AraC-type DNA-binding protein
Amino acid sequence: MTYLLTEVPPMPTFIKAGIGKFQPGKQHFYRTFHLFDFIFVKEGTLYIEEKGIQYTLHRGDYLILVPGRLHGGPKPCQVKTEFYWAHFSFPHDFHLSDRQEVDWSTILKKRNTFLTPDVFQLALQQQGSFRRRDQAMALFETLLQPNASNDPAERMRQQLYFFDFLIHVQQESLQVPSSAQQVAHKTMKYVQEHALDEPFLVKNMAAELLYHPDYITRSMKRVTGMTPNQYMTHHRLTLAKEMLQQGEYHLQAVAQECGFTDVSYFSRVFKQREGVTPGEYRRLSGKK
């Protein structure tokens, strides 16, 4: 299967959306377009061709047409057909990948710091069928509502509505098995309850949870994008930030209370993660 990949933020730019209605005998005209065109069939069957590849889209199916490629209808609709469409663009470059599988471990490319945002990979299956079709339709109807509005605030929110829809597409594309979610949730709960254990060993946790260590690691990567050890560090740093914001504790005390036996190591890891030292973080939080 083919995935459309790009980095966000900045977010995709919504251009315009609407509903197409074809009576039997009508077909999509051919063109080479400079924008992405998201096609989502509401009712009936739509025939679309892109770059010589023909697609038959039924109710609940979608296809993302790529800029610069000739597309059109290779044959007329045989029944009354309605479809949602949306034109959009990406601020960043994009590429198409024929990976066998993309999972959540690839989505978070860079975690935020105190000064920089999270960086994500937006991964959209180019062609698919919505499992939660009614929810997808409801999201698209919400996207269309501001079309008739002259309220600038509502028109601005249309950008947000579109990104909500794309997140839904990504969630459908990267469905995580429920078994992996269960293992990951148990792992995160265990980590939170044993955040101050030293040393923290995955094999000990695996023995208590009755799962193989490799299976725990794979499940965590699929659901959170982090290994158990990375999540432990993430949780300890979250506790440290809460203490630093209170402004009442010496750095040595913060490090020890949050499971770091060495304050220098704590400071180094904190700066790698947040982009500032613990002392700078405390000052930026308004504490002396």
User: Anything to note?
Assistant: The first helix runs from residue 133 to 144.
